[in-house]
Design a protein that fits this description.
The chain is about 45% helix and about 15% strand.
């Protein structure tokens, strides 16, 4: 991990460079992604199966109902119960997020309505292949269910012709009828443009690696995507002398094990604490199955920062705009209101990011790569489209029309002005 000191002359420049270099790595996947997308777009299922065989050793893109049920029945009841608990908590919190339609009538009896309508069809991307994320099924699907989306499709990379039982159980819990054992840029292309076996959707949501993130950007416009960059994962932890170095190290490793491009950042006013965390990371890394992934993530993208003042910490956090932020400090109340850029914020020593990833109720699909500066995590609102309905009265057009005519003529849009002039003339006869 890189170690930075805020008092150093080139601190800001070095931090900017490190953040930029990671972002550049993510963007660099765009060229290879474009080629794959065009191949699937032009050659459909043939190209899709080709890439599944190549990347996931998978030659079956649609699992049978018999296979799905067999795998679900094999799942440990304890895992089923954990998924049930998470489902109920996530559903309860997201059910509170529904927006109310707006209706407004002015003094001229012009009526304006603003209505929320669910998107017809949505594909949820659930990362997979060698790992499994039933939690991501819930985080993607439940807000869509609450919104009233009619057609939910799950795309999840299988491996050697099979999918993860927990992922399938979570999909069943969410009443997902269409399940495709596909992943990566080719999967994004398939649901964006459709193939013989897969009908296109209106929107795609869900986190993925850098290739998936690049693919979603590439297809945007032909299909909707979230208003953010979702992946690879990030965490920034602010800690102090009261923080437990063992806990902090485990939080950093917990994020690093997601992806070699995951970014883990530690900020502290206490040099001794930073040293202790470093030692704990080295110790704990040896005990996790995904050690090689976590180690590469920490070595390539991990940053340890010694920052002496709270106002500097606030400035740095807002610059980073992390996906996950943990304020693992005693006085978090004094600075949290000044943090403007973050996907989610965990407050206090017990508010660990891992809880938010599973069953606390909030959503774990959050903006990454600096996009928390202008976007938010997945919510029910993601699955609505909004339509304005306008009913203009005779009095309304006669009263307000002249000022519109003035503005339209000023902008050189004579046709706009004429469309109002003709109505006023007709009405006044």
């Amino acid at each position: 991990m890189k170690v930075l000191f805020s008092k150093n002359k080139n601190f800001d420049k070095t931090l900017d460079s490190l953040l930029f270099e990671r972002r550049k790595k993510i963007i660099s996947d765009k060229v290879s992604v474009t080629k794959i997308i065009n191949d699937v777009k032009n050659n459909g299922d043939k190209a899709l199966i080709k890439y599944e065989k190549k990347f996931n050793k998978n030659n079956k893109i649609i699992p049978s109902l018999k296979q799905i049920n067999r795998l679900i029945n094999s799942l440990d009841p304890k895992v089923k119960k954990a998924i049930d608990i998470a489902y109920n908590r996530i559903y309860k919190f997201h059910s509170l997020q529904k927006f109310k339609n707006i209706s407004y009538t002015d003094k001229f009896k012009n009526k304006l309505d603003y209505k929320y309508l669910p998107i017809d069809s949505v594909a949820i991307y659930v990362p997979g292949s060698t790992a499994s994320y039933p939690s991501s099924v819930l985080m993607n699907a439940i807000p869509a269910i609450v919104a009233g989306v009619k057609r939910l499709v799950m795309i999840n990379p299988g491996y050697k012709g099979s999918q993860n039982p927990a992922v399938l159980y979570a999909a069943k819990k969410c009443r997902i009828k269409e399940i495709y054992s596909i992943g990566g840029p080719s999967a994004i292309a398939a649901v964006s443009y459709g193939t013989k076996k897969i009908k296109k959707v209106d929107k795609i949501v869900g986190p993925g690696n850098s290739y998936v993130a690049a693919a979603k950007k590439e297809v945007f416009g032909d299909v909707g995507i979230e208003g953010m960059t979702a992946g690879p994962s990030e965490i920034t932890i602010v800690c102090d002398k009261y923080s437990n170095p063992e806990w902090v190290a485990s939080d950093l490793i917990g994020q690093a094990e997601h992806d070699p491009l995951a970014q883990c950042i530690l900020i502290s006013k206490d040099k001794n604490l930073i040293n202790k965390v470093q030692l704990e990371i080295a110790k704990q890394l040896r005990s996790i199955p995904r050690e090689s992934i976590a180690r590469k993530s920490l070595n390539d993208n991990g940053i340890l920062m010694y920052v002496s003042k709270d106002n500097e910490i606030i400035k740095i956090v807002n610059k980073i705009a992390p996906e996950h932020l943990e304020l693992n400090i005693k006085n978090y109340k004094s600075i949290v209101s000044k943090i403007k850029n973050s996907g989610s914020i965990c407050l206090g020593k017990y508010a660990v990011m891992a809880m938010t990833d599973y069953n606390i109720g909030s959503n774990h699909i959050l903006p990454t790569n600096g996009s928390a500066k202008y976007s938010s995590g997945i919510s029910v609102n993601e699955f609505f489209k909004r339509i304005s309905y306008i009913n203009i009265s005779k009095k309304g057009i006669e009263s307000l029309g002249p000022s519109v005519i003035t503005l339209a003529n000023y902008e050189g849009l004579k046709g706009h002005a004429q469309s109002i002039i003709k109505r006023i003339k007709i009405r006044s006869k």
